[in-house]
């Protein structure tokens, strides 16, 4: 079955991706495409907490997804999965802080969120398996 670390990283990665997506749905001014999707599925009430979502929850969920992808390497030892899984949260964090002043930063946010969701779906469809035992893996 799953080791405790593997179980935590699998659940944490999904929670981070979905939390970041829902947080972005709450800000119609920042992310109109995602917010319109959120309003279409009945999440328009989130707009009243837009500041909390963008300033607190979106970075928090992106950091959660980033940490879980990095920790995931310790359970499955596949650097390419951890690397690809870390790109989305890094893009979201870069678009929120250093690149927020530029007009193209929302496109980077959309790309990062899309990549986070895609990697989460990839992980559900084709879970990572450890490719070596503890004696042959190098840390």
Structure characterization notes:
The chain has 139 residues and is an all-alpha fold. Helix content is 70%, strand content 0%. The chain contains five helices and no strands. It has helices at residues 4-25, 32-40, 50-76, 79-96, 105-125. α3 (50-76) packs antiparallel against α4 and α4 (79-96) packs antiparallel against α5 (105-125). The longest helix is centred in the middle third of the chain and has 27 residues, at 50-76. The chain is globular. It starts with a helix and ends in a 14-residue tail after the last helix. InterPro entries: Mercury-R_MerC (IPR004891). Pfam families: MerC. This is Mercury transporter MerC. The chain crosses the membrane at residues 21-46, 52-71, 83-100, 106-125. Keywords: Membrane, Transmembrane, Transmembrane helix.
Helical content class: 55-70%
Count of individual helical segments: 5
**How far apart are the first and last residues' alpha carbons, in Å?**
23 Å
How is the main sheet built? none
Shape: globular
Oligomeric status of the shown chains? Answer: single chain
Mind sketching the topology for me?
Elements (H helix, E strand, L loop, with lengths): L3 H22 L6 H9 L9 H27 L2 H18 L8 H21 L14
């Amino acid at each position: 079955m799953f080791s405790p670390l593997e179980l935590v990283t699998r659940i944490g990665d999904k929670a981070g991706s979905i939390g970041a997506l829902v947080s972005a749905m709450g800000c119609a001014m920042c992310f109109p495409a995602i917010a319109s999707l959120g309003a279409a599925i009945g999440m328009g009430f989130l707009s009243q907490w837009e500041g909390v979502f963008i300033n607190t929850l979106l970075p928090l969920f992106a950091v959660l997804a980033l940490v879980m992808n990095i920790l995931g390497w310790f359970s499955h030892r596949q650097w390419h999965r951890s690397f690809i899984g870390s790109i989305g949260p890094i893009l979201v964090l870069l678009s929120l802080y250093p690149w927020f002043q530029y007009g193209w930063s929302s496109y980077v946010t959309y790309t990062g969120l899309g990549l986070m969701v895609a990697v989460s779906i990839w992980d559900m469809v084709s879970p990572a398996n450890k490719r070596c035992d503890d004696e042959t893996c190098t840390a």
